[in-house]
Amino acid sequence: MQIVISDPKAGKAYKVEGKDAEASAAFIGKRIGDAVDADILGLGGYLLEITGGSDKDGMPMRKDVSGTARKRILITSPPGYRPKEQGKRRRKSVRGNEISTEISQINVRIKEYGTKPIEELLMVKEGEGES
Questions:
Q1: Parallel, antiparallel, or unpaired for β 35-37 and 47-55?
Q2: Domain spans of the chain, in order of start
Q3: Would you give the DSSP letter of residue 50?
Q4: What is residue 76's three-state secondary structure?
Q5: What is the Cα–Cα distance from 65 to 12, expressed in whole angstroms?
Q6: 16-40: b or e for each residue (b if 16 or more CB lie within 10 Å)?
Q7: What does the pLDDT look like over 55-100, one tens digit per residue?
Q8: Strand, coil or helix: what is 122?
Q9: Best exposed site among 20, 41, 51, 97 by fewest CB in 10 Å?
């Protein structure tokens, strides 16, 4: 499971691979908007907020669809559909707002910062690991 951490202060995003089962299990059952302690990822003192994600087939998660299942809904705005004209609607498949084992990428935003900079904790070299 990939975890993409967005840093609003720096305007950067960092990709972390949740290799062990503990890191993945900490996110399962959480919903979009929930806060998660980042100690599991090795980021002591940081607090992360879940902002979205996508499943193994690339279907985006939506905050307004409850549950973990994939559903076909009529939508007019992102995520999942970006209409070219105002007022356009379309039925698209999206994933619910709860994280399950089928989610392959989780997007999070830093809500509270720790004492050490995130680059130091993730051991990011210049120009590497950022997206």
A1: antiparallel
A2: 2-122
A3: E
A4: coil
A5: 28
A6: bebeeeebbebbeeeebeeebebeb
A7: 999 999 999 999 999 999 999 998 889 999 999 999 999 999 999 9
A8: helix
A9: 20
Q: How confident is the model at residue 26 (pLDDT cuts 50, 70, 90)?
A: confident
Please give the pLDDT value at position 49.
Answer: 95
Structure tokens at 36: 């998660």
Over residues 102-120, the pLDDT tens digits come to: 999 999 999 999 888 888 8
CA angle, residues 14, 126, 111, in degrees to nearest 5: 30
Q: Cβ contacts of residue 25 below 8 Å, gap of 6+?
A: none
114, two tokens: 């720790």
Strands 35-37 and 12-17: unpaired
Residue with tokens 């994939």: 70
Give the number of other CB atoms < 10 A from CB of residue 53. Answer: 24
CA 131 – CA 120 distance, rounded (Å) = 17
Question: Is residue 126 pLDDT above 80, yes or no?
Answer: no
| Residue (of 100, 91, 92, 97) closest to 32 by Cα position | 97
